[in-house]
Each structure stands twice: as C-alpha cells, then as structure tokens.
Amino acid sequence: MDYKYLSRIKSPEDVKKLNYSELDILCEEIRDDIIETVSKNGGHLASNLGVVELTVALHRIFNSPDDAIIFDVGHQSYTHKLLTGRYERFSTLRKKDGISGFMRPAESEHDPVVTGHSSNSISAAYGIYKAKRLRGESGTAVAVIGDGAMTGGIAFEGLNNAGRTRGNFVIVLNDNKMSISHNVGAISKAITHLRNRPRYHSVKFAVNRFLKRIPFIGEKTAKFVFRVKEVFKRAVYRNSFFETLGYNYLGPVDGHDIRALEHLLWTAERYVRPSIVHVITTKGKGYQFAENKPKDYHGVSPFDVEVGAVESEKLTFSDVAGETLVKIAESNQRICAITAAMTTGTGLSEFKEKFRNRFFDVGIAEQHAVTFAAGLAKGGMIPFFAVYSSFLQRGFDQIIHDAAIGNVPIKLLVDRAGLVGEDGESHQGVFDVSYLSMIPNMNIYSPCYYDELEYRIKFIAENDMLAAVRYPRGCQSGNVKLDYSLDFNHLQRNGEQLVITYGRLFSNVYKATENTDISIIKLNKIYPLGEEVVNAATCYKTVWFYEESSKKGGIGEYFGSLLYENGFKGDLRIIAIDEEFVPQSSVSESFKRFGFDVDSIKKTLGVK
After folding, report:
1. 557 is catalytic
2. Is 295 a catalytic residue?
3. 3-class secondary structure, 359
4. Which among 7, 16, 249, 377 is placed 20 to 30 Å from 316, CA to CA?
5. What is the pTM of this model?
6. Domain 488-605, second-level architecture
7. Annotated catalytic residue, options 53, 262, 366, 548
C-alpha cells in the first residue's frame, strides 16, 4: 500500500523532517501497516501498537545508529523497523527469508543486539554506552524496556550496575501493564507537570552552574540546594527506588503524546547522570479489539482485521498439559502450577481460575521459578513449572544447583520443544534435550500424542522424581496406540534397518515406514536410557536416529555411544539439527529443510 508519509521514510532522518500534524498522520499509517501485516503473517500486535508514538519520538531525539536504541522485549520493535529503512520489506515479517519479528543485527545496523527473549536491554545498552566512552566516541545508548521485561532478574542487575555511571545513559520504562511510580494527589500532578517541562530543566541546569561558580561557598551551596530538593521531591513522589540507584527520574508521561515524549527524552539526553524516563502506554492502541483484550492480541495467528482474532478451537499440546494438571489437582491438594508470565501460552488459565492459591505467576523470572519450585518441593508440595523450551535456558544453573544436586523432585513441563516456526532463532526449542540430558538425576520424557502426554504428566506426579516432559507447539498428527507404561516401544519388522526416534517425529517415521520391513523404536523415556533398549537395537545392520533437536549433545549421540559400547558392528546415521541456529520459517518448511517430513524420510530410507 502506498502511504502518504510512511512510504517516504527511508531512515530516521526523514522522520525528523516532519511537523507534528504530519507525525500524527504517520502514526496512523504505521498502525494501519502493522495491523495489515500481522493480520496476514501473524506476530505480536498489541505491544507494537502501544509504542508507535514512543518509537517516533525516540528517533527524532536520538540519532540511530550512532545512538544505540534497544527494544526489550524485541517483539515491540515493528515501528522501529518501519522507520529504519525496512518499510518495503515489512510485508515479509516472520516469513522465510524475510525480516525478523525481533531485533536482529544481521538485518540492520539500527538493531544493535538480538532481543528475542527478554530483560537484556539494560545490560547490553550499558555495555555499548561504556564502549563508546572508552573509545572516545560520541553518542549514547537507550534501553526501551517494558511489556513485563522489568520482572526479569537481569534487568535489575543492569539497573544496579548502570546507576553508578556518570553521563547521559537512558532507560525508557514502557509502562503498559503495571504502575511502578504512582501519582499522588493534585500537588504531585502539578509538580510532575512542572518537572517535565524543558524550561524547568534548563533553568535548573543554569542555576546549578551559577552556584558552582561562586568562590568558596558555591559548591557547598549547590549541594545543599540539591539535598533540599531531593528530600521534598521524595516526600511527594514514590520514585526513590530509581533515584536511590543513581538515576534521574523523569515522568510519568503520556506515551502517545509525541511533544511531551520529546521534551522528556531531550532532557534525559542532556543529563550528566543516567535517566529513567517513565512512559505510560496503552497496549493495542488504535485497534479496538486489541485495546479491549491486549493479552489475547499479544501474539496472534493470521486473522480478519474487520472481525478480529478468533481463538482456535483445535486442541493443542499446551491445552492437554493444562487440562491434565487440573484433573490431578482436583484430587491431589499438593499439586501446584508455576508459570513465568505465560499463563495462557502454557495452557494454565483454567488451573489459575480453579486453584488460585496453588497457582504462581512469577513474571519473566525462570531462574526464580526453578528455585521456587524446588522450595515448594522441599516443603512437601508437587510443583509443575510449565515453560517454553527456549525460555527454560535461563534457569539452567538453578536446575543443576537447586534441584538436581539434591535430587529435588520438581516437574518441568517443557512446552514448544522442537521447531517452532516463524519466531526464528531465539525461540526454537532445540537445545533443551542437550542441556537437560547432561544433568545427573534428571529424567526426560518426550510424548508424541495427547494421551501419552496425559499419561506421562500423571506418572511423574505420582513418582518422587526430578523430571522433564517435553512436547511441541500445536496439535498432534494421528495417533498410534502404544503402551506408554514402557520406556520404549519396539515395532519389530523383518528387515535389517531400524529407525529410532522420539516425540512428534515418531508420527512421520511411522507414516513413512508403514507397509515396509523397516523396524522402529519409539523412545518414550529419552534420558537416561536402559540396557534393554540398547540391546534391542544392537542386532540391526543399519540404525537411523531421527531427532528434532540439536545433534551435538543430543540423544542420538548418547544412544550411539551406548550402542557401540555394547558391541554394535553396523552403521549408525543420525538425522538431526547440526550446529546451527534455525532461522524463521514455518514448521513444515523447517521439517523439509532438515529431512523430517514424511517424503524426505522415505527418500532417505529408500522407501518407494
């Protein structure tokens, strides 16, 4: 579509040339284009609609890429992409070989770092800022943090460290959900209005310089005036948390008022100490469906703009996991559920409603979630932590230190395990097998079907064990009835070839080898492996191992070492993801790429 202003934006310099009336139209066009694109491609909608004016103001005050602007979480960077030369490619958002739904340095010099997950912006921006100062370069760095990212522990680590610096390092707190600094009464509002005016800060700077020039008493007088002002300000504001850490607090300000935003950002850019700019935004701004239900429009599949996003009626693995937890919690008062800000995504909405006192949303804090679960388990409860595979990476140390060493029986429900599609490199769940299987005392299961997932969740709830159950995003494909009480199922045929696999790949392997003499071993328990399954595989001439996970450190390599130690004389071939980050594309496209689809499996195995 040819927009009046957006079509002409080739770089942030073009945004600086527009007047405020033109900027208002530009913001409308940006929202229209984001809604249109996401309705076709899917993606993160509500968070991006909420930061349109903020992003415009940032690019008018700062000079990207000399000033590094980092959006955290990166899924709120769509406007940033449109303003930094990617308008013509924006229709390829989240598509194979298209632009990413997150910040990606390989895509543009305006994306300083990868921000696919959460809470890393302050640390990264502060590192860039200090590097500029050490190298004698101009420019600053801005961390735009919000959409729950402030609940992540690393955000507070970055805050603590960066508050010690001197200079114009800037953090923009995009407050679209929670209130961190409250306005208190008419006096507070009046002083907030005064403090947010550029004239106020210009006079303040001038007075401070004047006082310091007075011989003998100037420096002391300036410090005294500063202390009096701080005492009065803290009596009125509840923002002392940031100021205690060394920040100049500015705001709160309407995040949809470009003029007001520019005033505060201009002030922050000129301070000689780090600043927190507190911005209030509305998620879903400009699209009524998203404004009314921002959580439902956080991440959406393609939808009709006029009708709005319609929730899929198809049952998913996440739904089954949540429903199973509800079932067992009804008869077992010890069952608890934990999520890291992903209640709906991990299927725990019903559990939350029915068992509020046993449901815990800890925010984007997977490290805390694991250790908290360990504490619950030590206290006699049975905690299930439902978490996306790629997000569990943040809790790796705690799994080892707080659970595995003491063999504390926490239960990990590892959602989105395997290839996830359009979210790309940072979200592919292809590493959990490698890092979980290296941990002593860990038991790992990987169901292929809904009934198997239900069986396994009930099984680990009833057994005093440290366990992880991993399952993919989306729906099951078919359903072969097997005995899930066994650690593995051996579908013996008459040939000399054997395929070993686990998880949803079993469904494709089964379809590809039907009516052939190729045998299959489906691993129900993928770690640790027992002698029986290794013995069952030793007699075959050729063993194929299919694994929707990283090859290095995967179960295929682990099985292979046991196989050869057991005297295997045949040929082992592992089909897995070999030392690469998987780019964005649909799951079906990724399956074809790695040879996981039915046709590719047939071709590899020589099936006619």
Report:
1. no
2. no
3. strand
4. 377
5. 0.87
6. 3-Layer(aba) Sandwich (3.40)
7. 366
